[in-house]
Design goal:
8 helices; 6 strands; 190 residues; alpha+beta
Length: 190
């Protein structure tokens, strides 16, 4: 991935797509933290506990048709799908706990180094906190008309799945999408 700041260093004549730009993914993760996170009582900032939970929420944002199928299967009727349509935003792979993006290893330190998130580890569980700066950036993204569709999609995902744990989300993905996810070999694109 390349930062928007360094696009001029990208080889001329080479196709560049939004999926290659780190800020594209970082913006989505900031919005997921803000719109799906729970407010921490002490810090008064939003947080998501568990990398699995963060990755699975991201999966349903990036794969709108899978989310639509899930909502239909759950027979939930109060979800507005006007914005949650279209194809796969950015592909993920099948990994140990279901859908995964190797770019998380670059994205999370990118956000942390810019004081947009802080990460704490308790045993084997990571908690991701929006910092004050991260909250301001996420709010400006949410207010930006160019991010309306993404923000609305994330709100829909939070409405249906936001209270679930990472393990519950992982199990839901494995049960609902056996052919598309569970039966794939490790590392295969979903």
């Amino acid at each position: 991935m390349i930062s928007f700041k360094n696009i001029s260093q990208y080889p001329a004549g080479t196709t560049l797509v939004s999926d290659d730009i780190i800020e594209f993914h970082a913006s989505r993760l900031l919005l997921i933290l803000k719109l799906c996170g729970q407010k921490d009582r002490i810090r008064k900032v939003y947080k998501i506990t568990g990398l699995t939970k963060l990755a699975k929420l991201d999966f349903f944002v990036r794969y709108p048709e899978f989310f639509r199928r899930l909502v239909r299967k759950m027979d939930i009727r109060n979800v507005d799908f006007l914005d949650h349509s279209g194809g796969i935003e950015s592909r993920m792979i099948r990994f140990h706990y279901g859908p995964w993006d190797q770019r998380y290893y670059q994205l999370l330190p990118f956000l942390e180094a810019r004081d947009l998130i802080s990460v704490e580890k308790d045993r084997s569980t990571f908690t991701f906190f929006l910092t004050e700066n991260g909250g301001e950036v996420a709010q400006s993204l949410q207010n930006d008309i160019d991010f309306n569709t993404l923000s609305n999609n994330i709100k829909n995902v939070n409405l249906i799945l936001g209270k679930m744990t990472g393990s519950q989300l992982k199990n839901l993905v494995y049960e609902m999408f056996e052919y598309e996810v569970t039966s794939l070999s490790m590392g295969k694109l979903i």
